[in-house]
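fyi for ur records
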Amino acid sequence: MCLGIPGQVVQIVDADNHLAKVDVSGVQRTISVRLLAAEGIAQGDWVLVHVGFAMAKIDQEEADLTLEAVKQMGQAYYDEIEAFDSTAII
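which gave:
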């Protein structure tokens, strides 16, 4: 199962190529934020991450609520974190 999961932008890695490092439940990965280029993404922003792409910019409250809901899914949450941890954009 693939879920969208909240991640917080910790660093803009490559602004020209729209790459940012995000933290998802303690796991950090570089993802594409190209789909949100028009909105502008900065360090500290929350985004909804799916298969290595930021799909939506969300606020802190939505991030907290979504993380809580996803964690209640049990193993699906841990599978998603494992999948996030094992992938990277090169």
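Helices lie at 60-71, 75-85. thats all i got for now
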